[in-house]
Amino acid sequence: LPSRPGSPCADLRKQARQLENELDLKLVSFSKLCTSYSGTRDGRRDRYSSDTTPLLNGSSQDRMFDTMAVEIEQLLGKLTGINDKMAEYTNSAGVPSLNAALMHTLQRHRDILQDYTHEFHKTKANFMAIRERENLLGSVRKDIESYKSGSGVNNRRTELFLKEHEHLRNSDRLIEETISIAMATKENMTSQRGMLKSIQSKMNTLANRFPAVNSLIQRINLRKRRDSLILGAVIGICTILLLLYAFH
Length: 248
Prior knowledge:
The protein is mainly α. The protein has five helices and no strands.
């Protein structure tokens, strides 16, 4: 982005980069929190067979999640405001060449903001789904535990039922992980297709914007082809003359 140090454009660009770097770090921590939350819940599930191991309390993780979500939303709002200010500056730039460079940089910052927003909402939705599912499963576990403690069961049929129940839940978890991987692959392929279409569109725009360059390239190619034909003809004539001279 061509701008003088200390100008409004340079200051806005610096602020946008700082916010983007901060958002990147926050989103990484946010994703790790979601992963650790899921791992903790799975760990509870694995320890469920032991009656002496207490369930972990996830309220601290829930509070941390809510705090980080608010912080990320605030950063996204600030970055959106910076992009809007850069858009206003771009519209008032006046110089066509400078305006085009500003538009390119602004679009790049907007793409980064869109990617961060999509990643945040996706991680947040996954976390909320895990928490809601675990809350439902927690009530089921409490009912099972109260039933076991109330009847003091060493009942073989109940144990078999609980083991089968755990097998089904493990299968369900594996299916969900497989679906998540498939959805992520689909999103990556869609993103790559959009990127290729964008590159093709930009190339077509450049070709239409500079027809003189295309004309010059075509003339150069025609001249090279003509020179090649002339050189080939000269070589052929010289070869024929040498053969005639050799046989005479």
